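Q: Trace token order:
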Amino acid sequence: MATKKSAGKATKTNAAKLGFDSARLARVRDAVKADIDAGRCHGVRLMAARHGEVALDICEGYADRAANKALKPDAVFATMSVAKQFTNVLALSLVERGLLKLHAPVAELFPAFATLGKEKVNLYHLLTHTSGVMSAIPPVAPEILMNLEKIMTYASALPLESQPSERVNYSILLGHSIIGAMCLAVAGRGRSYAQMLKEEVFEPLGMKDTSLGARADLAKRLCPVRVSYENLPALLPPAAVEGLGSLLAMPGGELPGGGCVSTVQDVLRFAEMLRRGGELDGTRLLSPAMLDFCTRNHTGNLRNVLFDMWLGVRNWIEYPANIGCGFFMRGEGNLPGLFSPMNSPRSFGGFGAGSTGFTVDPARDLSFAFMSSGLMEDSYHFERIAVLQGMVLASIVD
């Protein structure tokens, strides 16, 4: 993968100097405004950088449309599943330090987990969503769901939904709670998982407005989780999404699979670290060798079973999940959603329910970060990210 070094901190510059056609790049803002005006979403924060310098910085719409509250550049959002990539990077850094092993069964750390077919489930299975652990949100009380010790006890008593490596079935929350518990088991040193993420990932990368659970100092800038759709088939009904959003932002809760809050600036810094081969501003979290391994399609032609509903309600073709070891991958071919057809095959990133996402295109030396208020239904959100990325890529002429 490309590891070209440039300014660690993305800075504003003339887009034309970075190889963009400015008139074409302006179409991105027009598309964002059109979505907001049509009520497809409420507000958008978007940043795109090339060679480490910001070419596009968009802030449009509302933080809270019902309250007529304008979106501000420093707005804080629930990351939804982008939090998974924060946890994945932490886990992979522990692999590099020899504290975790991709192939070792979870049961080596948690012997009670070795029941009902889970004996061989390992970190690699969890990172590639091929573990077979529960895909849906666990039907437990918040005090269990948001406590890693208690949720591990719950997970240990569950059977698998499929055998390890048999299929891709994206685990919405449980898989990453298990990963978080593994991280704490080998390197927690008495810390909470929120403290561990802060000290091992967020502080080293200068992600000053990112936390697991909402910090008190970020509360006034936090956009409420509201949906912008109704009467659409969805993985979760609107009321469930909004209820989960309120839960995710609760202080003190530990949901490694979705419970972070952040700004678009911090998500761009995270993407920049990945674009640069695991290093930012002199701080290295991962090696280029690890990222080269992780940013390949590790799931072959297996489809993502969680998304099967879209093959019917959206009339999409069946397509491969293209999941790397901790990241979504572009892969080859004309595929629905997530990435633009113009993204290079080794492009990778992460996405969160109806509202968030980031990507890195190593061949174009491009990083892209997106956060929004007014959640779209997931399939439309994936398409939106792909379309906006495509418009950015179509603006690169040099």
Observations:
- The chain is about 30% helix and 15% strand.
- Residues 4 and 207 are 22 Å apart (CA to CA).
- The chain has two domains: 11-77+216-393, 89-195.
- Residues 1-8 have pLDDT under 50 and may be disordered.
